[in-house]
Amino acid sequence: MCLIVFDWRPAATDGPLLTLAANRDEYLRRTAEPMHWWQHAPTLLAGRDLTGGGTWLGLTRDGRFAALTNYRAPHANRADAPTRGTLVSNWLMRAVGATPLEYLHEVAQSGEMYNGFNLLVGDFARRELAWYCNRSPQAPALLAEGTHGISNAVLDTPWPKLVNKRAALAGALAGNAQAPLDQLIEMMRDTRVARDDELPATGVSLERERALSAPFIEMPDYGTRGTTALRVLARDGRLSVQTTERSDDNGSHQIRRPGDYERSFAFDIAG
């Protein structure tokens, strides 16, 4: 994912713990499967990167969650670095035991091996959500309640698209704490670019910086490949998940832009 905005309310007893909307940006040549229950890990719901084998966002029937964005530092990237998507799938496929913060401390021990990333890791049954960036001096940390955003820099870096969509999410939830997931997806499919005086300087050309400043990126070789909306809801002492993904590929690897292939899932968190 390359833009994630989310509202985290871990103390909720009757309403959403987590409301999240996210865009996955990727090269168009890189094949992937849309969100599905994995055959070899049947409690894991996620899309799948067919090049690296990992994923960008997923969750499990027992309430674990993870999502990843790349940290934009093109001149520091190494071609031989391990794939970052397995940092998500490794958490989702591991045996229950470690907390989100413990897992991120494990990741941080070898964080320098990877190109830059942000990693969100959660356990909804524990009501814990934690964040780590291997390009930040900050150690892995549990997140306090609030509305946050991550793009291709550290948590809540005020890039225009992050600021705008974080505010849009807060506004949508102020009007309806259980805003329809389709509304959140449409909110993220915004192709407007930022003004030149608002652009960050991340080591790419001005033309590319402009194109990457849109929440929903459309470029000849690269762009937003899918949008996911997710809600975790507390009600009557139970937790449930509702999620919808709209992607550009139905699994046949015939890219359709902008993506219109949609899948929705709903389930109770086990235990």
TrEMBL record:
It comes from the Bacteria. InterPro entries: TANGO2. Pfam families: TANGO2. This is Uncharacterized protein with NRDE domain. It comes from Paraburkholderia rhizosphaerae.
